[in-house]
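Whether sequence alone determines local backbone shape is best considered at the level of individual chains. Part of our work consisted of pairing the sequence of a single chain with a tokenised description of its backbone. This step matters because it turns folding into a mapping between discrete strings. For completeness, the protein is quoted in full, as a sequence line and a line of structure tokens:

_____
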Amino acid sequence: MLIALPRNRNPPKRRVAPLRVADLEIDALNLRVRQGTREIRLSPGEHLLLYTLAAQAGAVVSYREIADALGRTNPNFRNNTIARHLSSLRRKLADDAHRPRYIETIVNVGYRLSSERMG
């Protein structure tokens, strides 16, 4: 006996709300980042790094968690590789590592994205 099952010919549209932290809006599906009214172009790795930090805004994200998010599962993955990506991201966000507006370095642990709302 055959049973006819209804088929949905149109796949459901994937919708994920953009993350909003401070004056940043991070759209994960379209790989877009807005800083206030300005759109910022990021590499896919920088976007993933920012999204990973934004998803846990206010909390420290360890080097290992960041490496895992970037798909670097090798335990010997170097933290300075993450630091290079982060340096490039900070430049694009006009963030200063010594007086961070967005991304704070937690020495020997990882990074934290400020959860503060900018005025």
User: Anything to note?
Assistant: The first strand starts at residue 19 and ends at 21. The mean pLDDT is 85. The two ends are 66 Å apart (CA to CA). The beta strands are 19-21, 24-27, 32-35, 38-40, 60-62, 103-106, 110-113.
